[in-house]
Write a structure and sequence with these properties.
This protein is of the alpha/beta class. Helix content is 36%, strand content 23%. Helix 4 crosses helix 5 and helix 9 crosses helix 11. The chain is globular and about 60 Å long.
């Protein structure tokens, strides 16, 4: 089995030789996002080399069927009405993959909501030139209209409170680099990555960032206790991202779709080895130190952390549900009923809803600012107790 992309390996091992062992978060950052050789950043000649989709290493809901994008379009139009139909309504999609969700979203609005479409501006946050090329190909029909679709490399340059509309992400947060923590004799140590004898290996060291200790303290106050030998992931990148999203949102809603759990479930005793997974040609493994730069790496999202950091940063929790309930609330069953049972389109839609698959695995966290506790159709069915999301809720406040 290959150790990985030779050029990327030289970059990573060179850094280890210069600085000593690196945090797992740094290793994952380089493996996925090195500017030239990272998994999501390196050049590919055509769709056959694209990591996302049927010919790649994994697929998303948007690869299956446009129903998610169409449902989101309906939900966003309801949010537009709650905001009073502003002259400029912005959808900010962060990490748009191949652009399929954006394409299907825009197509639905153009056909079914022309007045809204005339005020709609779709902004994509994307740092990968390779991904931007795929997105531009999908969104070509709308490129001629000035300001309809635009790209930014990051959130940093956006004005504080300047966004009126919706900040949206689908399977973004799970790909943020994570720190790995192991508990030994009641004390937390961090997993560092070293290189020795022609292979990567792990070293346990004191935690590299005081925010990790604060994270652990928050878990303790939520009643989460990690036993000796417990290994898990902590996503400081996600927390920083949530603060930035809260900063730029003036009036509107944040919709985060991903696979993950609330903290009590994510850090349950049965997950003592963490949730880190690697994907290569639709096969999953737990081996991050092979095929480096040639396979995806993900970790389940801590939705409690996102909700708590959001609240601390000015966002209120609107609701928390799963993808199945979200889509049903937005009327996807009517669309399903119009299809021929057993047809390929019918089966694709069912896969989005199936409880043992994407339907319950994927969660939807909705937060708002500048609105009075909006009631949204996508949140009509909520199978979770939202009190489990945040520290205040866990303590009965």
């Amino acid at each position: 089995m290959s150790l990985g992309d030779p050029q990327l390996l030289r970059e990573i091992t060179g850094e280890i030789q210069r600085t000593g062992p690196i945090t797992f978060a740094r290793f994952m950052e380089l493996a996925l996002y090195h500017p030239l050789h990272g998994y999501y950043m390196r050049g590919r000649e055509d769709d056959a080399g694209e990591p996302i989709g049927w010919s790649g290493d994994f697929y998303t809901s948007s690869d299956l069927h446009p129903a998610l994008a169409q449902s989101l379009a309906r939900q966003v139009r309801q949010i537009d009405e709650l905001l009073g139909c502003p002259d400029r309504f912005t959808v900010l999609e962060m990490g748009a993959g191949k652009g399929l969700l954006a394409r299907d979203f825009l197509a639905d609005c153009e056909v079914n909501a022309e007045p809204f479409f005339a005020r709609l501006h779709y902004v994509i946050i994307e740092r990968s030139l390779v991904m931007k090329a795929f997105q531009r190909r999908q969104l070509a029909p709308w490129m001629a209209s000035a300001g309809r679709v635009s790209w930014l490399n990051g959130l940093e340059g956006l004005a504080t409170g300047g966004l009126v509309g919706v900040a949206l992400s689908n399977e973004l947060v799970d790909a943020f680099p994570v720190h790995r923590i192991r508990v030994d004799q009641g004390e937390a140590e961090e997993v560092f990555v070293d290189y020795e004898g022609g292979r990567f290996c792990e070293r346990l060291r004191p935690v590299s960032n005081p925010e990790l200790l604060q994270y652990l303290d928050r878990l303790t106050r939520m009643g989460v206790k990690l036993a000796d030998g417990y290994t898990t992931e902590m996503n400081l990148h996600a927390m920083a991202w949530m603060r930035e999203v809260a900063r730029i949102l003036g009036h509107g809603v944040v919709i985060t779709i991903d696979y993950g759990h609330t903290a009590p479930d994510l850090y349950a005793p049965e997950r003592g080895n963490g949730t880190l997974l690697c994907y290569h040609q639709h096969q999953l493994s737990e081996h991050p130190y092979v095929r480096v730069g040639c396979q995806d790496m993900t970790a389940h999202v801590d939705f409690s952390a996102l909700a708590t950091i959001g609240q601390e940063s000015g966002l209120q929790v609107t609701g928390f549900t799963n993808q199945m309930s979200f889509l049903i609330g937005l009327g996807v069953e009517d669309k399903l009923a119009s299809l021929e049972p057993g047809s390929s389109e019918f089966e694709s839609m069912v896969r989005l809803l199936r409880p043992e698959g994407m339907g319950r695995t994927f969660k939807v966290l909705v937060q708002h600012k500048g609105l009075d506790q909006p009631e949204l159709d996508g949140l009509r069915f909520k199978p979770f107790f939202e009190s489990s999301l945040t520290l205040a809720g866990a303590n009965g406040q």
